[in-house]
Amino acid sequence: MRISMDKTQIYNSVRNCISEELKDFERLFEDVLHTRVPLADSVIRYSLERNGKQLRPIMTLLAAKMLGEVNQVTTYGAVALELLHNATLMHDDVIDQSPARRGCDTINKIWDNRVAVLMGDFFLSKCLYCSNATGSLQISLVLSDMVKMLVEGELEQISNVRSHLLSEDAYFSVIRGKTASLFAACMKIGALSVDASEADKERLAKVGELMGVVFQIRDDIFDYYPSTKEVGKPTGHDIMEGKITLPLLYALQHAPADETTRMRAIIEQAQELTESQVAQLVDFAKSIGGIEYAQAKMKNLSYEAKRLLSTFPESEAREALICLIGYFSDRNY
Predict the structure, then answer these.
(1) Cβ distance 270 to 244 under 8 Å?
(2) Shortest CA distance to 226 belongs to which of 95, 116, 75, 333?
(3) In 3-state terms, what secondary structure has residue 36?
(4) Do 58 and 211 meet the contact criterion of CB atoms below 8 Å apart?
(5) SS3 (DSSP) at 34
(6) The pTM is what?
(7) C-alpha separations of 133 from 1, 80, 129, 141, 194 in Å
(8) Distance between CA atoms of 85 and 69, rounded to whole angstroms?
(9) How far is CA 147 from CA 174, 194, 243, in A?
(10) C-alpha–C-alpha distance, residues 113 and 99, integer Å
(11) What is the CA angle 200-212-317, rounded to 5?
(12) DSSP sequence for 154-170
């Protein structure tokens, strides 16, 4: 896994490190979702066909392999996490009324909101089954705590949007709940599945949290540029929904006072932002250096995550996780 590799090569090399373990994961994932209800089966097949890069189970499997030997507990834990992730995406698409995700039609668009919500619940029920199948109360507790943090993160974001809370601390609080908690759980469950020490479990959970924050900042930066098929959302989509992310927050804190006042007025006074207003805010964030600031923040957080990983014994799995951190910060979608 050389630095000169492009992003696709890095991703493929990371997967190759756990190729056999991923096959076991994929088999169990499909088996667990088996149903005799034709409608549910159609939705599941559609979901499997457009399955993403499986970054979260990859993290779980790599964490376990770095500290021990991937086993059935690891695999059930990884499947539980991926089921939960998919369930939250289905519910999010209903909440956000999203017609597309990563360039593909959402379940709520193809079928309807009722089907999307119920299928999200179905995936959650299967997550509970897999959590129980691990036979680990600790893993079940990590999963339940993570769900609480995900919901609290979503509610905190809604509250921030309604109150026009423009704070970097509030921004990081939301993404630690909405995104980083899931990444931290992936690493911790991987460690739990191989009976790692308490110190190793907590250190890996911290690595996962940092990776999650890096992942989300990169995702937020996409909002300031023209959409691609893979990203699947128009420029300024988050801003249009009232979600003020790191590049714009930085600009609001560092621009000349009169310009900041004018931009805050647009955010706070408009009931619904127009395309013209969104474009103004995007250009403002770029002109003040918001993108560069967010990229620098990603770099620092990535460095800290890699530093923590380097405290573990050298191994192929450790190097794969280090490469995955770089992939998160450099990805195009």
Answers:
(1) no
(2) 333
(3) coil
(4) no
(5) coil
(6) 0.91
(7) 35, 10, 6, 13, 15
(8) 24
(9) 14, 23, 21
(10) 11
(11) 50
(12) HHHHHHHHHHT---HHH
CA 140 to chain centre: 20
Considering only CA atoms, which of 101, 330, 108 is closest in space to residue 229? 101
User: Which residue is it, tokens 């999650």?
Assistant: 212
Six token digits for residue 315: 């191994």
Per residue of the chain (333 residues), give pLDDT as tens: 444 467 788 888 899 999 999 999 999 999 999 999 999 999 999 888 887 789 999 999 999 999 999 999 999 999 999 999 999 999 988 888 888 877 788 899 999 999 999 999 999 999 999 999 999 999 999 999 999 999 999 999 988 888 888 899 999 999 999 899 999 999 999 999 999 999 999 999 999 999 999 999 999 999 898 865 554 556 788 888 888 999 999 999 999 999 999 999 998 876 678 889 999 999 999 999 999 999 999 999 999 999 999 999 999 999 999 999 999 988 765
Which residues, including other chains, have CB under 8 Å from residue 162's CB and lie 6 or more apart? 242
Q: What does the block give as tokens for 291?
A: 């993108």
Which tokens sit at 280?
């103004």
Beta bridge partners of 100: 105
